[in-house]
């Protein structure tokens, strides 16, 4: 078994197993905890609209905060959108998803993918630079923050190198790219990357609780 | 320290702009003689005691983006990263991951998160108490929607049980539990005040009626420092012709048990008010101009009681708004411009946002809103018990300047709010900065402008 076979075979399979098990374990560990009944008289009897509202509206800053958070949020938007374009718009990725799920969709032109990849790399470097220099982010940051950055950054860079055939044989570069994705999957449930799912749980919980009280959301 | 020690060494300072203790420089910020290891264990056990799915979701969700700092008055005014709201929970996050989270076994086995030390908790006391008013403004900026203020409340539970509370807050909470009021407003004092105020102001103040439709409560700050609020409450309820009363077995809405983090004391204080309202057969309990009293009773009272309350609970501003809208409350036109300071626990976190505006509209006054208002209003800096903590004065006064500027920018003639704790903080700030603005009570403003019958 060569490196590419290993990456495509057992590495990716086990990565998905760990990913699925870890996600389930962590979500169950949170969601199965007790929920105390709330006997207070609600201001709004139906609270789920608050959950939806917060899930949607918290995706952009309020007018009162925008001047203080615009830079960081713009960077965040750039690399999240860039990642989405590269992951879901690149033809070989769509083939991979089709093989796994049977679902397929039209791909984006390669030029758009390369540009998105380059912008994403640039934004991720800026994000790291900001984390290392901003006093608040430096104080808050721990291993999870830096390692999560690393496992997000690596697949983008290795993918671009593989496409450009730069630095090694294509098969080797592709194997490294797939292994970097496997690493991302393995780390995903254990660190902050889980925010991809927890964002809905957390925003939804606060939205529903606050809607019940008529509090600001 | 014994009760006698508290009373003799730290008598109340009742004649100052802010109600607190004398000789604050003699501090006992570590209560009891529990061994350090036990303190840590107790703090963590009580932190997770009331942990449910929501709190666990919050603990798991932080992405360390640091945005919460930008909503916090203490960070914005100082630029000091330690005031980042989520950082105030760092030892508790550490302990949660190690002891209670879904992967706790892995964290412990590989020692990925170290055990929290008592030194850490002592250091964090300042962040959890002195520099957090639990105003919840950070909740509105967090991209994950984490309600950091509620987590600070849980952390305070742990800190209180471990005997790691700022001295002033502990002393007043202990006194509240022992005497029924944190600031010396015992039932005897309250009744005497009511008698004296009734005579002085020629107004009927009902106390201990056996049956009443409405029970009114006051905050200790109002009883001791702003007794005109008692008179104003009586004038308005009499104007409306209601069958109402104060109850000497349950008049104190202030809940320092909640502020300091002692859930047993919180329950005891809430039950006094609940039992007194039930004893009077009342259908309505009116809460005073006090922010945290509203949260304690309106949103937590029924949960403390263990079932729905058999009466309605309204903040006085909500009551005034209801009676204004119904036409029962008739006031003379107030031909002034005014700006309104939203008390965080009533407005942002309590949901009574429009009520005071409806009252102001009913008064015919012109409301000039501050740049940040309603749910986004800046905290006065004194909530969450911060105004009682002397060593927090410097950072509190700094934060207060944000509010001063927003008030000044409106150019309004009057400054009004509906929280006596905010009022006390504004009075103290006014005195400190020699500011030309005086905080007025919405309740008293209405009472002073009642239409003659």
List keywords for this structure.
heterodimer, A: 217 residues, mainly alpha, 9 helices, 0% strand, globular, B: 453 residues, alpha/beta, Fumarate Reductase Iron-sulfur Protein, Chain B, domain 2, Rossmann fold, four-stranded parallel beta sheet, 21 helices, 7% strand
**Helix-strand makeup class of chain B:** alpha/beta
Mean pLDDT of chain A: 95
Domain count of chain B: the total is 3
Number of helices of chain B: 21
Quick one: CATH class of the largest domain in chain B? Alpha Beta
H-E order of chain A: HHHHHHHHH
How far apart lie the N and C ends of chain B? 55 Å
| Overall morphology of chain A | globular
Summed over residues and divided by their number, the pLDDT of chain B gives a mean of 91
Radius of gyration of chain B: 22 Å
Q: What is the CATH fold-level name of the largest domain in chain B?
A: Rossmann fold
Low-confidence sequence ranges of chain A? none
CATH architecture of the largest domain in chain B: 3-Layer(aba) Sandwich
Strand content of chain A: under 5%
């Amino acid at each position: 078994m060569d490196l590419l076979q290993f990456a495509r075979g057992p590495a990716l399979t086990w990565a998905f197993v760990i990913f699925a098990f870890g996600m389930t374990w962590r979500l169950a560990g949170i969601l199965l905890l007790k929920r105390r009944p709330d006997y207070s008289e609600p201001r709004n009897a139906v609270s789920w609209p608050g959950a939806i509202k917060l899930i949607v509206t918290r995706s952009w800053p309020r007018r009162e905060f925008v001047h203080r958070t615009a830079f960081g949020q713009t960077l965040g938007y750039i690399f999240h959108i860039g990642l989405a374009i590269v992951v879901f718009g690149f033809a070989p990725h769509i083939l991979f998803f089709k093989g796994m799920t049977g679902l397929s969709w039209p791909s984006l032109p390669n030029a758009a993918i390369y540009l998105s990849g380059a912008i994403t790399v640039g934004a991720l470097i800026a994000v790291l630079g900001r984390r290392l220099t901003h006093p608040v982010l430096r104080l808050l940051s721990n291993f999870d923050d830096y390692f999560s950055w690393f496992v997000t950054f690596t697949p983008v860079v290795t993918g671009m190198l593989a496409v450009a055939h730069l630095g090694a044989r294509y098969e080797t570069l592709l194997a490294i790219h797939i292994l970097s994705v496997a690493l991302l999957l393995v780390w995903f449930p254990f660190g902050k990357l889980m925010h991809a799912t927890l964002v809905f749980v957390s925003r939804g919980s606060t939205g529903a609780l606050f809607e019940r009280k008529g509090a600001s959301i | 320290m014994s009760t006698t020690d508290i009373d003799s060494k730290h008598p109340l300072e009742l004649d100052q702009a802010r109600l607190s203790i004398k000789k604050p420089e003699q501090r006992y910020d570590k209560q009891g003689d529990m061994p350090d290891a036990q303190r840590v264990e107790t703090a963590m056990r009580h932190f997770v005691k009331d942990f449910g799915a929501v709190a666990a979701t919050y603990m798991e969700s932080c992405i360390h983006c640091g945005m919460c700092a930008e909503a916090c008055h203490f960070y914005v005014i100082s630029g000091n990263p330690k005031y980042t709201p989520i950082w105030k929970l760092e030892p508790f996050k550490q302990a949660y991951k190690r002891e209670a989270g879904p992967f706790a076994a892995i964290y412990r086995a590989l020692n990925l998160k170290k055990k929290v030390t008592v030194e850490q908790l002592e250091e964090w006391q300042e962040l959890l108490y002195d520099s957090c008013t639990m105003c919840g403004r950070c909740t509105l900026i967090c991209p994950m929607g984490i309600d950091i203020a509620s987590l600070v409340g849980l952390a305070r539970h742990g800190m209180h049980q471990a005997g790691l509370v700022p001295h002033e807050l502990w002393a007043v909470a202990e006194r509240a539990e022992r005497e029924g009021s944190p600031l010396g407003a015992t039932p005897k004092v309250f009744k005497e005040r009511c008698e004296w105020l009734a005579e002085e102001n020629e107004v009927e103040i009902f106390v201990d009626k056996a049956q009443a439709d409405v029970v009114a409560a006051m905050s200790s700050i109002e009883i001791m420092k702003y007794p005109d609020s008692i008179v104003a409450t009586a004038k308005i309820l009499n104007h409306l012709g209601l069958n109402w009363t104060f109850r000497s077995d349950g008049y104190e809405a202030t809940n320092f048990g909640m502020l300091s983090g002692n859930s047993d004391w919180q329950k005891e204080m809430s039950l006094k008010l609940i039992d007194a309202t039930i004893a009077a057969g009342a259908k309505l309990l009116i809460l005073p101009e006090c922010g945290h009293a509203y949260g304690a009773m309106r949103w937590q009272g029924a949960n403390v009681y263990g079932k729905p309350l058999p009466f309605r609970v309204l903040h006085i501003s909500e009551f005034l708004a209801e009676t204004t809208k119904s036409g029962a409350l008739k006031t003379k036109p107030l031909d002034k411009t005014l700006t309104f300071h939203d008390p965080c626990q009533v407005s942002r976190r309590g949901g009574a946002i429009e009520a005071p505006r409806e009252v102001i509209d009913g008064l015919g006054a012109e409301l000039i809103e501050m740049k940040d208002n309603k749910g986004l209003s800046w905290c006065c800096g004194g909530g969450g018990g911060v105004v009682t903590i002397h060593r927090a004065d410097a950072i509190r006064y700094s934060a207060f300047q944000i509010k001063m500027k927003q008030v000044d920018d409106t150019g309004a003639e009057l400054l009004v709010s509906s929280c006596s704790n905010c009022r006390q903080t504004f009075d103290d700030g006014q005195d400190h900065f020699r500011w030309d603005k005086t905080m007025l009570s919405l309740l008293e403003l209405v009472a002073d402008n009642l239409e003659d019958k």
